[in-house]
Amino acid sequence: MWPAPVLELLAEGGDRPVFEDGDRVVTAAEMLSLVRRIATGLRQHGLGPGRGVALRLSVDAHAFAATIAAFAVGARVSGMPSGLAPGQLSHLLERDDAVLLDDAAVRSLSGFPEKPIDVGGRPGDVARIIYTSGSTGNPKGCAQTYAAMSAAWAAHPDRWPPAVAELARRLDRYLVFGSLSSQVMLEYGILTLAAGGTLVAAHPPAFPGTIAEHRATASVITVGKLHQLVRAQRANPVDLSSLRALMVSGSPLEPGRLREALDVLGPVIFHGYGQTETGMISMAMPGERLDSVGRPPPVTSLRFQDGELYVRTPAQASFYWQDPEESARVFVDGWVRTRDLATLGDDGYLRLLGRARDVIIVQATLVYAGPIERALAADPAVAEAYVIGRPDDETGEAIHAYVVPVTGRTPDAAALRSRVAAHLGPSSVPKTVTVIDHVPLAPSGKPDKYALPAT
């Protein structure tokens, strides 16, 4: 049962370095000892199966150990997303009935005595809640059971699809940043341990300098950051000879942009497709079918309904935490409705065609247009508000807002952006706010916000 495979990797690792943070190098044996001590502390505080543990931690060895320890005692683990508005954080902690662990609390827990770990997870219990932006304005949590996490591929070389197996060979020094409890960062971190590599902490992750400074061989990168890295290498190249793999996360990567990145950075770009609800759906190796997102592995099932893709994966989430209505719309008879339009070619490659939902992906964060429109329309000077996403070199996609003023009033763009930040957090703030007389209409007579002019 999860996370037993991770504990076994650490137990077998001995003096092998598994985590590097500046001058501090932590061996597998030392990391296992730290996990055991924190797990002892968690149990002493009554945390175990059925209890919620919310993590808000920096990126260091203690944070990684605390994440694994929280799973080891069988708790329901959630990583608090960065950039939450205060009201959103309070809402999540109250709804989850979770104990918040910060860096100071974890340091205190590490002082408990080391004891052997009896993994406490029960198959049907929720192991973790992974948060993504919600259509109501409050983050929604994808609930993944211990059985689902145990079925995942990262810790098991015999389960690796070909693209993942190739990626694993390049994970000697995997650069970690942001949050070690995040789905992507943790998944590839476990893959790194299974491949015999080392997690290397970046403070902060400033590409390309951080890659060169740490001689990193691999990291995760958003589409926007990839565009910036390519531009930086064209203008002022630095030595990236150590780099062997960049896993592109979050937004679709256009074939032209992918080709440019391969030309500038070399054959290091692994791009693919996945969702918080499903985990990885497919992955393509560097230079493989640039117009696709790779081949789904045999354990992943696909079906299409009116062009919309439904997916079933062994490690998928089961439902949205305390949101039965949205769960019923997305988790359908064992399938996950992706709300993306796609095709599967005769060559076995998956190709994305567009979205069947009103979302914008900003720096790999899924943002719903509806809550932003409602926040803008609540301003006394705004009669109507419309929000769309457009490609952006900095963030992958950017949010653009259009507002129709109340007669005789003039909306204040800065005040509107501050209103959104206060209600929804910085990731939902529009890059531009444009005042318009009216919104274009589609032939049906309904507003056609995608016909609005680019700003």
Please outline the helices and strands.
Layout: H1 4-13, E1 17-21, E2 24-27, H2 28-44, E3 52-55, H3 61-72, E4 76-79, H4 86-96, E5 98-101, H5 103-109, E6 126-132, E7 140-145, H6 146-150, H7 162-168, E8 173-176, H8 183-194, E9 198-201, H9 209-214, E10 218-222, H10 223-235, E11 245-249, H11 255-265, E12 269-275, E13 279-284, E14 301-305, E15 308-312, E16 319-320, H12 324-330, E17 331-332, E18 335-344, E19 350-355, E20 359-362, E21 365-368, H13 369-377, E22 382-392, E23 396-405, H14 413-424, E24 432-435
Parallel strand pairs: 1-9, 3-4, 3-5, 4-6, 8-9, 8-10, 10-11, 11-12, 23-24
Antiparallel strand pairs: 1-2, 6-7, 7-16, 12-13, 14-15, 15-18, 17-18, 18-19, 20-21, 22-23
Helix pairs in contact: 1-2, 2-3, 10-11, 13-14
Protein name: AMP-dependent synthetase
GO molecular function, one term: acid-thiol ligase activity
Domain AMP-dependent synthetase/ligase: 13-321
3D structure, described in words:
- With 455 residues, the chain is α/β, with parallel strands linked by helices.
- It folds into 3 domains: 1-150, ANL, N-terminal domain (Rossmann fold), CATH 3.40.50.12780; 152-357, Rossmann fold; 359-451, GMP Synthetase, Chain A, domain 3 (2-Layer Sandwich), CATH 3.30.300.30.
- The chain has 14 helices and 24 strands.
- It has helices at 4-13, 28-44, 61-72, 86-96, 103-109, 146-150, 162-168, 183-194, 209-214, 223-235, 255-265, 324-330, 369-377, 413-424; strands at residues 17-21, 24-27, 52-55, 76-79, 98-101, 126-132, 140-145, 173-176, 198-201, 218-222, 245-249, 269-275, 279-284, 301-305, 308-312, 319-320, 331-332, 335-344, 350-355, 359-362, 365-368, 382-392, 396-405, 432-435.
- The strands form 5 sheets. The protein has an 8-stranded mixed sheet with strand order 2-1-9-8-10-11-12-13, with helices on both faces.
- α2 packs across α3 (61-72) and α10 crosses α11.
- The protein is globular and about 70 Å long.
- The mean pLDDT is 93.
